[in-house]
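Q: Okay, next protein. This is Phage tail protein from Streptosporangium lutulentum. I've checked the sequence twice, so it should be correct. Can you predict the 3D structure?
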Amino acid sequence: MAKYFAGAAGVTTGTAKKTLLQMLAGAQRNGLYEATISFRGVSGIAQPVLVTVERQTTAGTGGANLATNWGPNPIDPASPASVSTFLQGPAAAVWTAEPTSAEVLAAIEIHPQSGVIYQIPLGDEIVVNAAGRIAIVCTAAAAVAATATMRWREGI
């Protein structure tokens, strides 16, 4: 089972619920074993940002392709190309239609001058079914630039 990385940088959260990074699994099940989020806030007294990892049922409209070199990239260069695809939130705008949320699988409030690495032990990964979607989503009181990443195994 090959391991992969994908990410989105410089995506502005906006002040409504916003999907920052969304995976669409290919023809096999994936195991998400790491999700990260960090912010470039400037206020030490800003309100925390609610960050969720959630299953989604639609792609939404208005998402963007990942920037060049941001994935999906194999962790081992000898691994085959990933069959998963990704969308990131529009850099400075809102989605025309935000993807539809199905289930929240993890949640944390993070100060907008900080970040977190959410590592899931192998064997306990969040399963993404074939053709399923999983995303990192933020709800912020004030817009802030964010970077979100995922690491996963394909074919679990």
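A: Here is a summary of the prediction. The radius of gyration is 15 Å. The chain has one domain: 3-154.
Q: Noted. On to the next one.
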